[in-house]
Task: structure prediction
Amino acid sequence: MVDLIKIGFLTVTLVDILDITLVSIIIYKLFTAVRGTIAAQIFIGLIIVLLLSFLAQAADLKALGWLLKLITDIWVIAFIILFQPEIRRLLVMLGTGPIARMFLKTGHFDVTDILTDTAFELAQYQHGALIVIVRSAGIKYVVETGEVINAKMTKNLLKSIFFPRSPMHDGAVIVKGNLIEAARCTLPLSQLSTYEGLPLGMRHKAGLGISEIADVISIIVSEETGGISIADKGKLIRGLSRESLRNYLNKNTKISREKGFKGIFEQFIKSK
Result:
């Protein structure tokens, strides 16, 4: 192995640099997982003890090294027992990273299922809805017109927003990935008053209008008929069935069909 740095008896190789880098990343991820909790203080104390133990071994201080190693072993066990939630959070963070997604992409991401099921449940009760799915560049200027939420998407949350007596049922919901970014947003209206010979209501004009100027897909649930439509790239597709809506979202959005390590870790955590 080629020595990169040599100062007296101390030599540093490429493997040493890689080793230090990996340890630094692990320590940083651990600290990020426990930051803001009481575990952070204990974690810092543990790092100090580990550092002192390393220095004691390097200086060949056997008695001090043995004592510090004993303390370290006990602290590690206590850390694992007392702070299971933080460790689980770390596992989820690792499972959602880009490296993890490269190795495993199995299962189905449930966002398209949530959107499809929500749209058809709202349609059954003729509760109007307008959901805008962001595909690439964000539409911050639209998000700022509504109520910022930034919450994980669930069917119950979407149904609550579009319940007719909800203060946020008017306007559009903006969805990015598996998050609801905002609700009650105002969208630019299309200049069209009819499409393929059929008149456009305000909800359809808004859904169509945003699709004309941004890379988004609009899911529109008619309050009058309970029909479900999609606006995409300035085109309107009416009368979608449950399966056709799901297939369209799977084919045309980035949120489709990817679960990876994240889903596995979440399933594991929920089972505990």
Q: What stands out?
A: The two ends are 45 Å apart (CA to CA). The longest helix spans residues 14-34. Residues 104-108, 256-272 have pLDDT under 50 and may be disordered. The chain has two domains: 3-103, 111-256.
